[in-house]
Amino acid sequence: MKNIVILISGRGSNFEAILEASRREHWETAIPARIAAVISNRPLARGLETARREGIETVAVDHKLYPTREAFEEELARTVDRYKPDLIVLAGFMRILTEKFVSPREGRILNIHPALLPLFKGLDTHQRAIDAGVRVHGSTVHFVSAALDGGAIIGQAVVPVLPSDTADSLAARGLKLEHVLYPKVCRAVLEGRVTLKDGRAMMDDETARSLAVFSDAA
Ligand code: GRF
To answer: Which domains does the chain have, with CATH numbers?
Structure first.
């Protein structure tokens, strides 16, 4: 049985989408894999409540209680490793992870970023996309490397940018597709159909096609 550990900071809707897919598609027997724990750096994250309600183990590692980023990260690493994760899924996890956390786990950590990388790294991506006048926007799931939003791209979801859009309406349209994309990527990585090699995500054409998600899919 492969263990998935999900790291969140807030709402946790991507975690919920992964949980729903894992149940609908019977990941426990089909892969086999299960969500072993949900960990948050914010003790009041809504996603933690959801996880508890669904009978999934939760842990809060509150970054505010640690004097330095390193001290927080060491405790986070200890907590994550307790679940012997085959896959670590950052789903709205809002702390930057340093090389020390990332390196020993490279190829096993995923993140979702709300933009079509390599465009719009960092925060405020929806407003920045509107300001730039792009006609498509979306989200990217990538392997995590020590460079912020810089790891190898695995899959992307694409939505139109409409003249009437605000940052919020664009974010909502994008989020719907994240919920389609992220579970698919998790499953493909867990099944060994996607691997990290020499800084690139390796997969066959069929997998790549399934991990390019367009807005009529949601
Ligand atoms: C998503 O928009 C994701 O792209 C970004 O943070 C948001 C998380 O939302 N990294 P949720 O907590 O999964 O609902």
So the answer is: 1-105 (3.40.50.170), 112-218 (3.40.50.170)
